[in-house]
Amino acid sequence: MAESAKRRLLYQLVGLGLPIVGREQDPAEGLAFEFLSSAGGEPVTTGHQDGIIAMDLAESDDVHREGVRHTMGEPYRTVLGHLRHEIGHYYWMVFARDEGRLSQIRWLFGDDTIDYADALKSHYGSGRQTGWEQTYVSAYATAHPWEDWAETFAHYLHIRATLQTAAAYGLVVTGPAVAEGTPMAETLASTPDEDLDDAPFHAILADWLPLTYALNELNRTMGRDALYPFVLAPAVVHKLALVHRMVTQVAREQEAVA
User: What does the domain layout of the chain look like in residue ranges?
Assistant: First the structure.
């Protein structure tokens, strides 16, 4: 499962045109993956450090992962989600090399010079902030600007990948019958497009939200929880839009020097 998720992640990054520098090319900060298992009793922390993404293979076990999800109070937890989150940390490192981009990130996500260890200790000690939904995509995003960026970046990758897959299968949402002939019908329609690089984020969101409504109802029809258990507040949309702009800018820069 972990290897399959990694391949899906790398396929998406290549499709987005983002730079992927291997460890052999850059021994100091090149990208590499370490898949370890805590099943034998040795503790393993899923995380990122200087380009190395570590993954606890115990997360591939559905029972273990679901137990942790409930313990942590998370609405969503998957192996692919972990990898998308950790690659977000990697691209903070890559994007932050440009002072202009770093200042934009800090303007929306906050001061990343705050001590990270102290911030995590405070987060786990005091619990989730009240009203975090108005500003953050997840409760964990409140822990530190680095985590806010990584959670938002991962969410952006969720959106882009799902819309691309929906477009590849020709999925179209025209809205529920109760909305036909009303102004609401247009806002409930979705025609996903595979090529979203030049689209403004509000156009991406206009296709994304109706698709999630449909997917959630399909899941509920099968007796399952909502597939997409998130609500995107305006502040979160602004953060996602910044990620979109930076991803497309960096991809164009990569294409120009290729």
Answer: 1-95, 130-258
Strand, coil or helix: what is 187? helix
Q: Residue with structure tokens 């850059």?
A: 26
CA distances from 32 to 76, 163, 253 (A): 25, 27, 23
Reduced to 3 states, what is the DSSP secondary structure of residue 122? helix
CA count, 13 A, side-chain hemisphere, 96:
17
Q: What angle do CA 175, 177, 180 make, to 5 degrees?
A: 75
11, two tokens: 């396929």
Angstrom distances, CA of residue 192 to CA of 176, 199, 247, 248: 17, 12, 19, 18
**How far apart (Å, rounded) are the C-alpha atoms in residues 29 and 23?**
7
pTM of the model: 0.90
Neighbour-count burial of 210, counting CB atoms closer than 10 A to its CB (0-12 exposed, 13-18 middle, 19+ buried): buried
Q: Where are the alpha helices (DSSP H) in the chain?
A: 2-16, 62-72, 79-95, 99-109, 116-126, 145-168, 183-187, 201-221, 234-257
Alpha carbon 124 to chain centroid, angstroms? 21
Cα separation of 233 and 235, whole Å?
Answer: 6
Q: What is the C-alpha separation between 136 and 213, in angstroms, rounded?
A: 20
Mean pLDDT per 10-residue interval, the chain, length 258 residues? 91 94 87 82 81 80 55 69 93 94 96 92 78 92 95 96 94 72 65 81 92 91 90 95 96 84
